[in-house]
Write a structure and sequence with these properties.
By secondary structure, the chain is α/β, with parallel strands linked by helices. About 40% of the residues lie in helices and about 15% in strands. The strands form 2 sheets. A 5-stranded mixed β-sheet has the order 3-2-5-7-6, sandwiched between helices. A hairpin with a 2-residue loop joins strand 6 and strand 7. Helix 2 packs across helix 8 and helix 4 packs across helix 5. The longest helix is centred in the last third of the chain and has 17 residues. The protein starts with a helix and ends with a helix.
Length: about 200
Amino acid sequence: MKMDEYISCTDFPCSDAVTDAYTIPPLEVNPADFSMILISEAPPLDRGEYFYTPGDPFYLQTTLQAFDAAGFPAQSMKDLLDRGIYITTAIKCGKTGYSVSAKTIDTCSYLLEKELGLFTHLKALLLMGDVAIKAMNYIGKRQTGERIIPAGSTYKIRHNEFFYEGIRVFPSYLQTGKNFLIEKSKRTMVAEDLKAALSLCK
């Protein structure tokens, strides 16, 4: 299955999105092979830094550092994919500014919902940052009328158990960008969340 053939945006309605940076994971995969998905925030404006770009893209560098800190060393995206870990973004276009509007997150959450629906053997979803958390809550509200993740600071709620269609959902922090490298406390919490999720997927 080629992901970008099943997941696509056709009209690009979001005014605060950089459509030139629109990216769906360019993979041909069997979704049944995956037990974990990391949902990051948005693709980088520079496609050369995207997770799946050949070489050593920056988004992948910091993600691999997070897995290493969780006691799960990997050298490449292929290592993660081979171990049943898929990475995507909550919104599929780059950001025009620091934040993303609620309307854009809601609109793009339909694509994320369709993407998640392709995976049949998931055990853990990692929500890497506020945009991913909000996107999943839009999905939850459409399906059940309820949020998946309750309101509150991530550091206060992250040890509680949340579920989406029987899949354990972990609210966490963004693992890409320079801020991740700077903020030691968030790096520690991301590593803890990854370790807990990985323990479910053995």
